[in-house]
Amino acid sequence: MADLDLMRELAIEGQSKILLLVLDGVGGLPLTPDGPTELEAAHTPNLDALAARSICGMSTPVALGVTPGSGPGHLSLFGYDPLQYEIGRGVLEALGIGFDLQPDDLAARGNFCTLDSQGLITDRRAGRIPTKVGAQLCEKLRQIRLPGVDEIFVEPVKEYRFVLTLRGKELYDGLTETDPQQVGKPPLPVEPLRPEATHTAELVNQWMAEARKILADEHPANGCNLRGIAKDPGLPLMPDIYKLRCGAIATYPMYRGVAKLTGMDVLPTGETIESEVETLKQHWADYDFFFFHVKKTDSRGEDGDFDAKAKVIECLDAALPDMLALAPDVVIVTGDHSTPAALKAHSWHELPLLLWSKYIRRDGVQEFGERPCMAGGLGHIHHTDLLPLAMAYAGRLAKFGA
Could you tell me if 279 and 192 lie in one domain? Predict the structure, then answer.
């Protein structure tokens, strides 16, 4: 488990470079007892070759048996204990789209959804409506007003996602979400988790009721849900802790948000893995640490599309030689959480992991997959151990003690 105070004490500046490659939701499950996972089914000669020169293992994002959200999964990759530093997804989405979030703002991640005639959810993502349609719906929702709330912002994110931000005095976080996380159930009422948040819960429920009226005649996005209703917690920043110049390359706003929250510079990039690689090349001289995020492994897992998820992994594998040609000193490849196509959702399963540096002790792993990595030399570790390990292999940690 990373000790941020210890890291701050031991971290030293240097010229070495660390590449953290995150395949979102990469962990999978076989469709038959003896079959491969999505990662094992994918044709990945470059990842396999890198694994054969690395030390491998399995890593837990939060705790054994705990299914992580994307926020906790990434925070732990960056060395923050997600049980200590809890961040609502609304904050991450708001920062990810460049919204000027104020300390007292209350932000929520919104999802448009499809409801049947009885108000039950039939599609939690409203058919992944185009971003343009989502923006039009946000414009309609901006007419809602709440008593005692100075300003209400409804900003489109991507496809079916939006950010709701309430600005005013005496707004409190500590609220439940409305998404039941499954179809066949209605959106849930927001409940306060502490007494002082009671009135804020009432305001958010009022907003939800008004939104339901406005969206009633829309299709397929005739409803919405709110998740991660929270305020900016004010994290200690990675550049201060690790003495690293940190750059983030991610196509989705939520991941840009968590990077910004930890003090990384978010680098503009295109929508494809190839464009992300070009961004990496363009900025290689400017940073010591790169967070490189691949989203669609997670999306295809949530869709339940085993083959499509394997294809995304193959696309990343094809781009890997161009990344390695930049000669990073440390490379870590893993995911933030598992999203097996068999479950169509995040899961609690450990993540396959490889760590390369010229200073590692190679193990016998020859392929990058869940079952090969189970036998790796790193064993079973925690995500929060990864950045301290990377710092050590990069020669950026001083000796502890005399």
Answer: no
